[in-house]
Amino acid sequence: MHKARYIRTGSIVLASTMKSGDYFGIFQCEHCKTDLILTQEHKRHGKIVSAFFKHREAENDFQKRCPLRVENNSDKSNKEKKSNKSKELQSV
Ligand SMILES: [Zn+2]
Questions:
Q1: From the CA of 41, how far away is ligand 1's center (Å)?
Q2: Which residues neighbour ligand 1 (ion) by CB within 5 Å?
């Protein structure tokens, strides 16, 4: 996702407009209020990936089901569900 609430200013900001000093700030998802990680623009497989916000680990079901969470798109395979489950069991 490219938009988030910047806690310091309380306003919605675009990832691409953030300066280096902003990378230590706290950003929150507008929808689920999960803290976000600001990822800088970088190169991947020779292509430029523009700056974006990434959700931190969900603390509850509501955060887990956030439609803005990118991971949800690739969370449909059973394999991934299984590995998530075993992860949960380990941490208990
Ligand atoms: Zn969210």
A1: 21
A2: 29, 31-32, 66, 68
Q: Please write the tens of the pLDDT for every residue from 10-47.
A: 999 999 999 988 988 999 999 999 999 999 999 999 99
Cα-to-centroid distance, 92 and ligand 1 (Å): 25
Query: How does pLDDT run across 54-89, given as a tens digit for each residue?
Result: 999 999 999 999 999 976 554 444 444 445 555 555
Distance from residue 19's CA to the centre of ligand 1 (Å): 22
Tell me which residue of 48, 9, 42, 43 sits closest to 27, measured CA to CA: 9
